[in-house]
Specification:
single chain, alpha+beta, two-stranded antiparallel ribbon, 5 strands
């Protein structure tokens, strides 16, 4: 049934980021596109968030699950880190943007949507262009802890997607260890 939902889903990139000059789809776009398919199959989607502290950084762990009656037919998780500061936003708005981002990637995993070619939003562009104020050693330790905290392969994959290529290269041995533990 999950394969049928994935095959039927059409969630085009209907939004445009004028700063980065690219199209993207939002979490809301994906949810609106999948609702009619779920309704036809008598299924429902549940999105939930957990706050996870890794070192001194806060991550939002989003989970997207599809159920038919009370039976789960698929689930995926994704992580997004709250930025320390986001100009013009209060703390609840910062958490909200992290939640939306993590939920979008949980939905992407669950529904087999590939967004790897595009950045997502203005927030992502700003995050990538703003240097992190923390010392590199603390960041590396936070990544190690987050990798070791993964409880399943989906969580590990979701966290892996949030890392830069440099961070992936530096932590490949830990990822291999965690994969063996979870296998």
């Amino acid at each position: 049934m999950l394969a049928q939902i994935q095959a039927e889903l059409k969630a085009p990139k209907g939004n445009f980021n004028s700063f980065g000059k690219y199209k993207y789809r939002s979490c809301e776009d994906i949810v609106e596109a999948v609702k009619p398919i779920l309704a036809n199959l008598d299924c429902h989607l549940i999105l939930s968030d957990d706050v996870v502290m890794v070192g001194d950084r806060i991550y939002i762990k989003a989970t997207a699950s599809i159920y038919k009656s009370s039976v789960m037919i698929g689930s995926a998780t994704a992580f997004a880190r709250e930025p320390l500061l986001k100009k013009g936003m209060d703390e609840s708005q910062i958490t909200g943007t992290a939640s939306s981002y993590a939920r979008k990637y949980a939905l992407n995993g669950l529904l087999a949507i590939d967004d790897t070619k595009d950045a997502d939003t203005d927030e992502d562009t700003a995050k990538r262009s703003t240097p992190e104020p923390k010392p590199a050693a603390k960041i590396e330790e936070s990544i190690k802890r987050a990798l070791h905290a993964c409880t399943n392969i989906d969580e590990l994959r979701a966290l892996w997607r949030t890392l830069s290529q440099e961070q992936r290269d530096a932590h490949i041995e830990i990822v291999n260890e965690v994969q063996e533990r979870l296998a």
